[in-house]
Amino acid sequence: MHFDLKAVIFDMDGVLYDSMPAHDLSWREAMDEFGLKYLPNEFFLQEGRLGHATINAIFQRNLNRESTSEEEEKIYARKSELFRQYNNDETMPGARETLEYVQQEGLIPILVTGSGQPTLLDRLATHFPGAFTPDTMVTAFNVKQGKPHPEPFLKGLEMGGNLQPNQAIVIENAPLGIEAAVKAGIFTIAVNTGPLDDSVLKDAGASIVFHSMPELTAAMPEILHLTRTIRV
Ligand code: MG
User: Fold this and answer.
1) How many angstroms is it from 8 CA to the middle of ligand 1?
2) Domain of 102: which CATH number?
């Protein structure tokens, strides 16, 4: 196997935006309001799933049944409302620099997120001007199956110009996102910006784990150099 790198696929929450603390808090409060219990770090472990899939998993564990689409809509609407209150729009330090470097190297940045939250999706163009277009963004609105299914990343490859898996690398922070990208056959770099152990991200299939976006930014020239020279 060798790389023929054309694109770098970025996850959004926890990679481009420091939004996971707000997601976690708004999920927990929404579940508390609906009397549903969750596990420690559940929303970091579930990160990347479509909203309805997260809610369904919690229903099955709490109530031994699937959630209805009405329940899913109601809870996700409440969660989104809380997220709008708690989210501070903070971008991850190093995210802009990494995107700029990728573009400067002639690679296409592609966004692959499970998010369906207009709060952040609508602001990407403001925070990361010129990085993504509607044609290079996979969101909750254009997939049937969310992460950990490979569909979002396969769709990302397609949007990059019908790319093969060896023509892209993925930057992810969440275990289910990593699992999805690896299932799509793409080399996956983890950036551990949350509370989970590195081992969770490695077990999900990440090839390297960085601990912050600036750490990744600093390593990007070496990573790109390696993709141009190694044969596996
Ligand atoms: Mg993420």
Assistant:
1) 15
2) 3.40.50.1000
